[in-house]
Amino acid sequence: MSKPIFNARTADKFVVRLPDGMRKRIEDLANDNYTSMNTEIIRAIEAHLEGQARQTLLIDALEAKLKSELQTAAKPGKKAQEANIDYLDGLKTGTR
């Protein structure tokens, strides 16, 4: 299978207005890494998007865990509010 040829003339483009000083920071980073400014910008965007995806997964997992813990703790004889406090105390002390 042949690798597709990248053509900068036909690649998707988007103009970005950079805050004062950011162009210099990107340029310095690119020079330090022996890459182009474009490469460093793409790497930063990819890292941000991957971080957002990981954050979403973590939040979903934490919400599911909290819901499960609250349902388990809210059994007859124990108030839901007490269960919530117990769970949060466990988070603070690292016992759960």
Automatic annotation (TrEMBL):
GO terms for biological process: regulation of DNA-templated transcription. Coiled coil: none annotated. Residues 8-49 form the Arc-like DNA binding domain. It holds the Pfam family Arc. InterPro entries: Arc_DNA-bd_dom, Arc_rbn_hlx_hlx, Ribbon_hlx_hlx. GO terms for molecular function: DNA binding. This is Arc-like DNA binding domain-containing protein.
